[in-house]
């Protein structure tokens, strides 16, 4: 592909997806702002205890969306249009089953889940309410995540971005209306969040009404092989999202022991800002995926590597800007979410912000290289990276460093873990490239 055309397409997809994903992450950031101002530190604690469940719902939706859409894009690049439709149909089937399971958990097990997540009597009712309602809205969240990926891979990244932003802005407006004028408290916050994907789906429906869609729902027999491929390709995206939830659960447990509810509230500010930052890198990754998958289908290795280079350079520039902003503005940023002007919360969050976000260039690299491997059907190295950063390294590191350095160790566990995983990612990329060179020499 022509370099100038490739660069133009890259920035078109990436800018649109960064805007869309940053907007999507504002679901939770808006909740954090309005809950902290409307319900104080206890409301912020309840939100932070419940929010990991959103990461699981969003992660599974993205797993099906990214896995199915990647397979769809590769099939279309290889001109296998019937298999492309089968990929879409199979994705919708398995997504629907998972959505029903989440709804049933919300109906029958939300109270037990609230206990497991560590809510005490002061925040139990608010935590349970948020959990139950977010689980009942899981079909909308998962359908939205899945269809956004397919519409993007169907050549319409602009509509995907508009849909995500429409959902986010509606969430912000409804948050204010439900929490303040209507005085619905935590229920209002979660209803606003649940309404957002519904509005986004309405916007996405324009892709069908305009008859722009090239994917179609077809009758298929259950295919364990196709389902396995979709899940395998989508697993890195799932782990990337779910790892945020797992890390929050582990950090909440450690910080509850070290600093109590105020410490968890302080971490809530950092964690929700982290969701926004990670969503920017996810936007870059999702913007590169359709292009890389398509040129991979064509067999154009030079363009694959060129797109990866653009993505990494973009990530590094953004990382420098974000960290500089947090370093210089940590105090006023935390104050926005500290409506009660709690001195302890302010001190914990400000020092944590400066240490925690030294991780962002490493985290950005790990998300991009994992997505790159997925885009070229190399699921195993992508899964190794995602599992390492989501479970295998950061959880032991959090317990070890918190034992040695208390709360400072909690903050440092994130950057140190991401740095180790980045070294693993570089090693896997080098091994993969050497393997390709050997194959070319043999040929």
Helices and strands, with pairings:
Blueprint: H1 3-50, H2 52-77, H3 81-108, H4 110-116, H5 124-136, H6 138-153, H7 157-179, H8 185-204, H9 206-209, H10 224-298, H11 301-336, H12 343-356, H13 360-375, H14 379-392, H15 394-405, H16 407-442
Helix pairs in contact: 1-5, 1-7, 1-8, 1-10, 1-11, 2-3, 2-6, 2-10, 3-5, 3-6, 4-5, 5-8, 6-7, 6-8, 7-8, 10-11, 10-12, 10-13, 10-14, 10-15, 11-12, 11-13, 12-16, 13-14, 13-16, 14-16, 15-16
Please explain how this structure is put together:
This protein has 443 residues and is mainly alpha-helical. It has one domain (3-442). The chain is 88% helix and 0% strand. It contains 16 helices and no strands. It has helices spanning 3-50, 52-77, 81-108, 110-116, 124-136, 138-153, 157-179, 185-204, 206-209, 224-298, 301-336, 343-356, 360-375, 379-392, 394-405, 407-442. Helix 1 (3-50) crosses helix 5 (124-136), helix 1 (3-50) packs parallel to helix 11 and helix 10 (224-298) packs across helix 15. The longest helix has 75 residues, at 224-298.
What attributes does this structure have?
about 450 residues, mainly alpha, 16 helices, about 0% strand
Radius of gyration: 21 Å
Oligomerization state: single chain
Count of strand segments: 0
Mean pLDDT: 86
Residue runs with pLDDT of under 50 for 5 or more positions: none
Strand content: under 5%
> Alpha-carbon distance between the termini?
24 Å
Based on helices, strands and strand pairing, what is the structural class?
A: mainly alpha
Counted up, domains total 1
Please work out how many helical segments DSSP would assign.
16
